[in-house]
Amino acid sequence: MKTTEFFEKHNYVLVKNFIPRVLADYLYRYSRVVETSAKIMVDTKFPKYDLEIFGKFGDGQVPGTFYRYADPAFDTLLVHSVPAMEFVTGMVLQPTYSYWRMYKKDDVLKRHRDRPSCEISATLCLGYDTSNVKDKKYNWPMWIDETGSLTNPGSPIYMEPGDCIIYKGSKVDHWRLPFEGERLAQVFLHYSDQNGPFAQYTKYDARPFVGLPGYFRDQEKIDKAGEIGYNLYTSQMQGLGEEGLAEKSLIERTQRDFDDKNEMKLNDTKNSDTKDK
Length: 277
Ligand SMILES: [Fe+2]
Hints:
Number of strands: 11
CATH topology: Jelly Rolls
Bound molecules: fe (ii) ion
């Protein structure tokens, strides 16, 4: 089955070698440099360390794990990949933001769906170090379930550096079981549908342009997108009936929209704390 047909049918697809291996290797090395330099700044209490610009250790989903929002290198990849994403999805897309993580040993990603405004997402493997694992063929899969039923066990999807999964984050459950390796760098690229309900609020994630830190997000637009997303969820839940509502994932997913917003506010507070010191 062709990539586009598979995506249409399942709401996700694995694309092997989405970027060439040599580029994935370079970006993996880059991610190691960024993480290590941020750690040195944290350890030495470097007064000019800015969490929004240099990246942070820990987010709401994976505590203590380094991540960086809108890293210019990956926001560039985000924009550069628009034609490929449009080809696979058959949609007209606009870039929202990139986000990357350096997963560490024992990290897990809880089963979840993304907020509705994350209409199309891609998760791309940059590289990993699993030399500590006895099984030399060890590979850490992302699990996907497209049925929406929590009782469905889902399927593992394995990625090598350069491979990516393109998926409708708000339509398929996705998660990861505990990681056994040392580290794994993964970048997430998010897009919204130019013909969808979020279009006027989500371009560049409500920033004037890509490559800019979170400080530049327009709170009014973010709130508006959150409101549209919440209303979408509410109407979906009303159509589910009692049995459907028992699938608590929907409720949790709705909650996540608010958690995300609160986390952002919390981070803003933490950030200004850091800068004051
Ligand atoms: Fe997600």
